What does this fold into?
Amino acid sequence: MLPLMFAAALVDTVIVPPADLNTIYVHEWGAITFAEEITIGAAPPSDPLSNYTTPDDWDEPLARAPVVYFYGAAFQGTFTVTVPSGTFIETWPVPEKLTAIAPLHLASSSRAVWTISGTSWGERDRTETPAGRHELSFSPEILDIWRWPPSFLLEFGDGIREKFIYYECALRPLNNDDFYPALLTNDGTVLSPEYHGELIRFIKSDGKVIIDPITGRYGTHREIQQATEYGDILETLCSWAGGTMKSDEINAMWTTWEDWIYDGSWSGDTLLVFPLPDETVERMSSIVLETTEEHDIEYSRFYVGILSN
It folds into this structure.
């Protein structure tokens, strides 16, 4: 797990305004993993009491652990996630509405709606036990990690209070380049030969996983010093986010995936982590916040792809 000292060393890239100003900031991070012949999501440590279906039992691409935070002006309203080609398989808190919508190109589409009855600053009461907690695939430790960012405490119509909204969905791509720069082919998923962007490369060596010291922009070389590996990864992810995410969000994101990456249970000998373009993210899902009072709303969505080969 990333020591908090590294997170503290990073400067927040967003200055959150006082709650009496008119702007609401919606931040989301997520990841898609690509392995072997199908696209799967790598689950963080699971609750052993959960009946949740593991990724290996799915035959569709999965968008894992999109987590959404809210900052800025206090508000009441609804938050909607639409998956234009796919279905939801897990959410927290449970949405007020979860429906199938009109088919798009013969592919099923889904929409989830959460009603947010209020927002406040503060921490969630750790003695609260989420209703239906046993149905979630994630351990309490993972949920606590997702509560690190100093975001609004959200109040929902059923009395639940939480610092984030989480959803997960099975995606049914219509084209082989829907997840660009990852391309879905008959022989598995590959990184597009036209991609010349940033990446971090992990390799299996002598029974353990290490970061490749030759990494950076795809097709070029940039040295990463092993002694400052944690700091370099966080700095790289913040750079990929383009100044749109807070350091605690990046910290929570990396900590969620770090153990799985270094466990080495992924297929192949090499693992590539790279930023997904905005166009790719918008093809997977869309998010909309509607409030009872008029507010300016700014959205920041940051996803990475994880490709093993």
